[in-house]
Design goal:
The chain is an alpha/beta fold. The protein is built from 23 helices and 28 strands. The longest helix is centred in the C-terminal third of the chain and has 35 residues.
Length: 844
């Protein structure tokens, strides 16, 4: 490059204080806009200085080194100096400063030793992602420790690309998870993301987008803030107008900001402009990350902070007050200009790229003469990080010196080694450094070289006089066994005025109340949903339920579908009127059957009793007595045993009764046929034909029941669905095939009995009961035909009621049709109960 080609004039300072070893800082003290080099003509000789911002970062280094120098236990007999470069957020100047600190001699040529070399320990760096990347690439070649305190996204936290780098802030992913927990705590699902328009901001937006999607939180919009040093007034106006449409959305009331105090400088300026253009205030809840946290002195000095009243911010958890802050707040007040003019009186001007012409500014003023009000504002999270970074280097250096001294045999030999310490020797001690500082109880790094710390959640409360206080309203613990734990004291939070001191709501749609669930229309974000009522048997107990939950089988949903109510157990009990009614009827019929049985036993030697086969009559009466007693198996809470007995009683008793009717009919037919001369049937008359028929037919039914009980017996079944709010205790049929076999066999017996009785209905009535059996079977069939549709359309406990009615009706039909006429003759017309009368009847 031409020797006469010079760079533009710039007020750039290189603050310097000699010492045995130097801690170097590359810090953006000012924000400046410089023209780009086109290499077509001489560079312009003007530059635009916009804001003076970060002198507090320089002062944090000065105070830390002053405290270390006054501490007799830390680095005794070693003097720490500093060499601080101002880079103005410029990559070009950062590159020059890095080359400058790596060079010796008159010429700025890295990796060339000439003359006395500065004893460099470590570099403390601030700035954006590009600044970090540039310096890390250069410093890592020499293994010089680099401690970054500025806005550096931890995409490079993997120690493989830059093992010489350390971060004075915790993992960014922890803060992302903390933001997620904060949104979930307050139920905010529709938010905006605001970040610098650079690689770090893009990574932040991309990471949070993917994190939020997995947690059903939606990003309403994203906005990239232009870089200050690339500021163009036309571009700024365009971006502000585009941002206006997003920030005026009423539904997105929460804005998440990511950046440091420098990269976010244009945000309050933009809000002022938007308010002026829109002629209305923009009421939002701002959530900021730890590197900004509304702590910049420029933020308080230049902009109206009313926009951020009630905002929430993450802040690295520190002690309540550090010694450096005490020093800041006990000094006489000076203006910012006096700090520049009296403390650092020098300028960097007309330097050539090929020569080292950075003018070193030696400390003139005393630290005790610094402005307290300005410094009080300036003690930001970044200032604390700078302060801690100096102490980290000092403690690691102290550990290195102690290690070297313990290995040296003589003091002179140890002193000689101490004069030859290289920066790379500091790395093992930086990785294992652990100490208590004025700002944190314990300072140490994790395996990725990142600070291990918890976060405070602070609430910014502003006042009309452009002052503010930061109130701690919660914390985020990052080192608990269960992972991240968020604690919020909601009653201590002061919300923005436009929300009337109520918790703000930030959602795309109104919340779904209990009893409803969310349904996302096709093509819409998951946060923009409709509310649909829960179906019968399902509920939702909280707002914005993703889906309705089914009640357990023992519960049912109320009308509002927000509560499960226990179901009542239902069965025909002895206490209810229906059960009492059946008990009364069963006992009454049992009494009638017993009376009929007693009448027949008392008059067993009368002709009418003898003529109708007393044994079959007794069998039929006993089966009817058992049949009238079987309803007691259907009343009361059913059990597996009672379910089994119900089916056996129903099957066996009715089979015996119908078999007895069939036997009586066949006996009449045989008796009539035996009266004809020469008929061979006469030899069967008088024998126990009827008993054999009853036994044979009943045995077949009994065998079918045994097979049924072995294959799949009836059991107790809980019916949860037939009736709303009821659990019906009922007996399952077990095997429906065997059930239909049992019923089918009884139908077969009844059909045979009906056919035989019907064919013999015109025989002389003195010798048979065909007419009565025929009539009885007609009654039973009519009951059976009417029972089937009733049974099919009956639910709940009324199925058992239908069965009870059927049993009583069948039994009453058998009793009334077969025995009432005979009882009438025996009791009321004994004159007809004679052999002559029966014989006369036969001759008619």
């Amino acid at each position: 490059m031409n020797e006469d080609l010079s760079s533009p004039q710039m007020s750039l300072n290189n603050y310097y204080s000699p010492g045995d070893y130097l801690i170097t800082g590359v810090i953006p003290v000012k924000t400046a806009k410089y023209p780009e080099y086109a290499f077509l003509s001489d560079p312009a000789h003007d530059s635009l200085m916009i804001w003076e911002m970060n002198y507090q970062h320089v002062l944090a280094i000065l105070f830390a080194i002053k405290e270390i120098s006054e501490n007799p236990k830390l680095l005794p007999n070693i003097t720490l100096g500093y060499n601080i470069y101002e880079n103005c957020f410029s990559v070009r100047i950062t590159c020059e400063a890095t080359a400058h600190l790596l060079s010796t001699g008159h010429w700025m040529v890295p990796n060339f030793k000439c003359g006395r070399q500065e004893k460099l320990l470590a570099v403390i760096q601030g700035g954006d992602f590009e600044t970090f990347f540039l310096m890390a690439t250069m410093l890592d070649v020499y293994k010089v420790p680099q401690l970054s305190y500025g806005f550096v996204n931890h995409i490079l936290s993997d120690k493989t690309p830059f093992p010489s780098s350390y971060w004075m802030s915790p993992k960014a992913t922890l803060q992302y998870k903390g933001i997620l927990k904060l949104l979930q705590y307050f139920g905010w699902t529709w938010v905006g993301l605001i970040a610098p328009d650079n690689d770090g901001g893009e990574l932040f937006v991309r990471t949070l987008n993917s994190t939020f999607i997995r947690s059903d939180i939606c990003v309403a919009f994203t906005y990239g803030i232009p870089q200050v040093f690339s500021l163009d007034i036309n571009v700024l106006k365009q971006t502000l107008l585009s941002c206006l449409t997003h920030l005026t959305q009423r539904k997105a009331n929460v804005m998440i900001c990511y950046g440091d105090s420098d990269s976010m400088l244009l945000l309050p300026y933009g809000l002022n402009e938007i308010e002026r253009i829109n002629n209305a205030s923009i009421g939002k809840v701002w959530i900021s990350t730890a590197l900004w946290g509304f702590t910049s002195s420029t933020f308080f000095t230049y902009w109206n902070i009313k926009f951020f009243h009630g905002s929430l911010a993450f802040s690295i958890q520190t002690n309540k007050r550090s010694k450096s802050q005490d020093l800041f707040l006990t000094q006489d007040e000076y203006s910012l200009d006096s700090v520049r003019s009296e403390t650092f009186d020098c300028a960097h001007s007309n330097h050539r790229w090929s020569r080292k012409t950075w003018k070193r500014c030696r400390e003139r003023g005393k630290l005790e003469g610094l402005p307290p009000a300005w410094l009080g504002k300036g003690m930001s999270a970044e200032s604390d990080n700078v302060y801690r970074a100096v102490y980290v280097v000092a403690h690691a250096f102290h550990a290195l010196i102690t290690s070297i001294s313990s290995r040296m045999k003589t003091a002179e030999e140890g002193r000689l080694d101490l004069l030859n310490i290289e920066p790379w020797q500091l790395h093992p001690f930086l990785r294992s450094v652990r100490f208590n500082s004025n700002t944190m109880d314990e300072v140490h790094f994790d395996e990725d070289g990142e600070l291990v710390a918890d976060y405070d959640i602070v609430n910014l409360v502003t006042f009309p006089n452009q002052s503010a206080v930061r109130v701690k309203v919660g914390n985020l613990q990052t080192q608990t066994p269960s992972g991240l734990e968020l604690t919020i004291h909601e009653e201590a939070i002061v919300w923005p005025n436009w929300f009337n001191q109520t918790k703000p709501r930030s959602a795309c749609t109104e919340s779904c109340q209990p009893g409803y669930s969310k349904v996302v229309p096709e093509g819409q974000p998951i946060c923009c949903y409709h509310c649909t009522p829960c179906m019968k048997g399902t509920i939702s107990t909280h707002t914005d339920a993703d889906h309705c939950h089914e009640c357990s089988p023992y519960q049912y949903s109320n009308n509002e579908r927000d509560q499960c109510i226990p179901k009542t157990t239902v069965f025909v009990s002895y206490e209810e009127p229906l059960g009492i009614t059946f008990v009364v009827f069963a006992l009454l019929f049992c009494l009638i059957t017993g009376s009929v049985f007693g009448i027949f036993v008392k008059h067993q030697n009368t002709p009418i009793v003898k003529a109708n086969n007393r044994n079959l009559t007794y069998i039929l009466l006993i089966s009817l007595l058992l049949s009238f007693s079987s309803p007691f198996l259907f009343i009361g809470q059913p059990q597996n045993v009672t379910c089994l007995l119900r089916r056996i009683a129903f099957s066996i008793i009715f089979s015996v009764a119908i078999s007895a009717l069939l036997a009586k009919t066949i006996t009449v037919v045989l008796a009539f046929m035996a009266t004809k001369p020469g008929n061979k049937v006469s030899k069967w008359v008088g024998k126990n034909v009827g008993n054999v028929i009853v036994f044979f037919c009943s045995t077949i039914q009994f065998g079918i029941c045994i097979i049924w009980m072995v294959i799949s017996p009836p059991f107790l079944e809980l019916d949860f669905d037939s009736q709303v709010g009821q659990i019906i205790l009922q007996c399952s049929e077990g095997s429906f095939t065997m059930f239909y076999c049992v019923v089918g066999y009884m139908v077969l017996l009844g059909a045979i009995s009906f056919i035989v009785a019907f064919l013999t209905r015109k025989l002389p009535s003195g010798f048979n009961e065909a007419k009565f059996v025929t009539f009885t079977m007609l009654i039973i069939c009519s009951f059976g035909v009417s029972f089937v549709p009733i049974y099919q359309n009956t639910k709940g406990k009324y199925i058992a009621v239908a069965k009870l009615i059927t049993i009583l009706a069948f039994s009453a039909g058998l009793l009334g049709c077969n025995f009432l006429p005979k009882c009438y003759i025996i009791v009321l017309r004994p004159d007809l109960n004679t052999k002559e009368h029966l014989m006369m009847k036969r001759k008619v």
